[in-house]
Amino acid sequence: MSTRTAVATGTRRGFDASWLWVGAATLAWIAAYRSILPFWNWAIYDVVGLDPDGHWGQAAHFFFYDTTKILLLLAGIIFVVAVLRSFMSVARTRAMLGGKREGLGNVLAAGLGVVTPFCSCSAVPAFIGFVTAGVPLGVTLSFLIASPMVDVVAVTLLYGLFGWQIAALYVASGLVLATVAGFLLGRMKLERHVEGFVYDMQVGTMGSDGDTAPTWRERFAAGLDEVKTVVVKIWPYLLVGIGIGAAIHGWVPESFFERIASPDNVFAVPLAVLMGIPLYSNVAGILPLVGALQAKGLAMGTLLAFMMAVVALSLPEMILLRRVLKVRLIAIYVAVVGTGILFTGYLFNAILG
Fold it and tell me: Greater confidence, 332 or 105?
């Protein structure tokens, strides 16, 4: 048997074994997801004996059911998206966006932002890499807006808490916001407000893709590693967010929120955005709180505007971006994106009543 034949045979065997493992894990995931609601109903109400209508019963059920449901959703969807991401890299994204004109480039950048790994801690290197690769400033900003806002964690949690309709509306509005805001910022010709050293850097220092495509076994292994990494990173935020949500769900009366953030209060959306900007959290920490507040009667548009402000305009990310952007450009960036978030909040309130 030749070396080439041996390699090919080994690859096929690895591929088959990997798919069998993934199939078994998928069946186990489906069984677990379908059983968590009846399990916690039985455990909390029958075994522990808490009153379904009491404060402790409502809070405990909210905490344990939402924690297991969200963790299962995160594990499943992050694994799938990580495997899909193995076909895409930041370097390849830069190559795809390099030289693209505004308009089409903004649309493409917003779409790629959803499937390309990015977080606030990588804002500076991502920005430098895109600009030095010849990606227009407005197109780069479309990517930076979409990537943290419309990421897999946000969509997963929205789906788990509110259903696919809300998740789809959020994705659509986030992509439109990133596209339009990046286009407007690009048309303002703000390149002079980027720190000069960015344009002096060389593209070659930012790394490149490898020549060898990974096998399916390697893609699945990367997906499992991504699940472990994300869950380990966000579980404290997740538990804190769900814990606060459980307390609100169990004890805070609906009338409290109806007075300050009802759909009829025209100042509720701007107030939510202003409150969200200085906060430091991620989607895992903020969405369980959003779910609890929504159950108390807060308008969905107001809540999603608050969440968008936290993840897209957080003060820590603006501080990081100050290394590559001058103050005026950051101020314009916040104003344009903030206006878009306000519009999105009012639009959601009007559509969803």
Answer: 332
Looking at the structure, do residues 80 and 163 belong to the same domain, yes or no? no
Question: What residue numbers bound the domain in which 61 lies?
Answer: 21-85+215-238
Interior/surface letters 106-145, b for 16+ CB within 10 angstroms, e for the rest: bbbbbbbbbbbbbebebbbebbbbbbbbebbbbbbbbbbb
| One domain, residues 228 and 335 | no
Q: How far apart are CA 90 and CA 124, in angstroms?
A: 13
In the chain the first and final C-alpha atoms are separated, in Å, by 69
The Cα–Cα gap between 130 and 106 comes to: 13
**Burial (0-12, 13-18, 19+ Cβ within 10 Å), 349:** buried
CA distances from 348 to 165, 287, 301, 345 (A): 12, 16, 4, 5
Bridge partners (DSSP) of residue 194 are 325
Q: Inform me whether the pLDDT recorded for 179 exceeds 80.
A: yes
| C-alpha to C-alpha distance for 274 and 145, rounded to whole angstroms | 18
Residue 110 resides in a domain: yes
Do 46 and 194 belong to one domain? no
Q: What torsion, rounded to 10 degrees, do the Cα atoms 244, 255, 69, 63 define?
A: 40
Amino acid present at 181? A
| Residues 231 and 145 placed together within one structural domain of the fold | no
C-beta of residue 103 within 8 angstroms of C-beta of residue 248: no
Residues 79 and 114 in one domain: no
Name the CA dihedral angle for 158, 163, 165, 169, rounded to a multiple of 10 degrees: -10
Summarize the confidence of residues 25-49 as an average pLDDT: 91
Q: pLDDT grade, residue 204 (50/70/90)?
A: very low
Residue 338 one-letter amino acid: G
Paired with 325 in beta bridges are: 194
Same domain, 144 and 39: no
127 & 42 share domain: no
Q: For 289-344, give the DSSP string.
A: HHHHHHHTT--HHHHHHHHHHHHHS-HHHHHHHTTTB-HHHHHHHHHHHHHHHHHH
Q: Domain for residue 220, yes or no?
A: yes
Q: Where are the alpha helices (DSSP H) in the chain?
A: 3-41, 55-85, 90-97, 104-115, 123-132, 137-149, 152-162, 164-187, 196-200, 216-251, 254-261, 268-276, 283-295, 300-312, 315-321, 327-352
Residue 278 amino acid letter? P
